[in-house]
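lol forgot to send this yesterday, sorry. struct tokens for the thing we talked abt
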């Protein structure tokens, strides 16, 4: 039977999630529980209720779709992908939390000759990750902390499996861009940047993006009736990361602040 995927959004005409014009398919479900998560509605792998302040009503976030249904939707913009050198990006949550669906969708896209990009936490079974690497052209790979215990404190899991998968990705044919979400009190000190440099040199990471902490997700916690630990914590602006970013560029890692 064809796998169904629980998704919470399909966003067309995106220009920030890979080259060219793209459609982004957002998978629901994530094995991590980062305390700063800006998309808490993406964490559970099933539809769930959420209060919508603007419309003053409860809505359901997430729906199950077949590969054929998702393909029909993303193929509507195929001419734009061809003209702009774009394609389809799979995001989440963590797409490999629904491995059968993610791999089937990636295969369908590749069979059609569409460029595939994926945003991943890397928190996935290593064998599944190896299969995934065969189907993807570009990977945005989140690395949240260099230290296993501090990673566990911040996300609920150590980084061991994640770093193994990052190593697999970096030795594959896919292009890899590592992303650090820079979170106050977790990994935002300049000493943290130096530790990341050590790790990235070991793994031979060449390209990095910094994602400064923002508060866009704050209201969603209330809407989902969940606790939010970073209430009122000031956002980080890209200009605040000038010195942090320089530590990477000084060590020959191409670094962009988003
Ligand atoms: S990995 Fe991303 S989606 Fe998952 S909990 Fe962390 S921030 Fe949220």
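and heres what i got for the seq, position by position
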């Amino acid at each position: 039977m064809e796998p169904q995927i629980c998704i919470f959004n399909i966003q067309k005409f995106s220009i920030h999630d890979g080259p060219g014009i793209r459609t982004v398919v957002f998978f629901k479900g994530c094995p991590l529980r980062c305390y700063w998560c800006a998309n808490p509605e993406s964490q559970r792998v099933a539809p769930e209720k959420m209060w919508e302040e603007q419309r003053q009503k409860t809505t359901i976030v997430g729906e199950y779709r077949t590969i054929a249904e998702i393909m029909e939707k993303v193929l509507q913009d195929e001419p734009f992908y061809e003209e702009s050198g774009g394609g389809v990006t799979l995001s989440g949550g963590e797409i490999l939390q629904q491995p059968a669906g993610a791999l089937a969708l990636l295969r369908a896209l590749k069979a059609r000759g569409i460029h595939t990009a994926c945003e991943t936490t890397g928190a996935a079974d290593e064998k599944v990750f190896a299969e995934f690497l065969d189907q993807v052209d570009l990977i945005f790979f989140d690395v949240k902390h260099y230290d296993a215990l501090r990673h566990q404190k911040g996300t609920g899991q150590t980084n061991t499996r994640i770093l193994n998968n990052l190593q697999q990705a970096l030795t594959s044919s896919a292009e890899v861009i590592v992303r650090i979400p820079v979170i106050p009190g977790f990994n935002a000190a300049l000493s943290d940047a130096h530790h990341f440099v050590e790790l990235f040199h070991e793994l031979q990471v060449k390209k990095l993006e910094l994602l400064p902490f923002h508060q866009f997700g704050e209201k969603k916690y209330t809407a989902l009736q969940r606790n939010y630990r970073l209430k009122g914590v000031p956002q980080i602006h890209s200009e605040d990361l000038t010195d942090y970013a320089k530590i990477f560029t000084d060590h020959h890692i191409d670094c962009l602040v988003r």
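The pocket of iron/sulfur cluster is lined by residues 30, 32-34, 37, 39, 42-43, 92-94, 121 (CB under 6 Å). anyway ping me if u want another try
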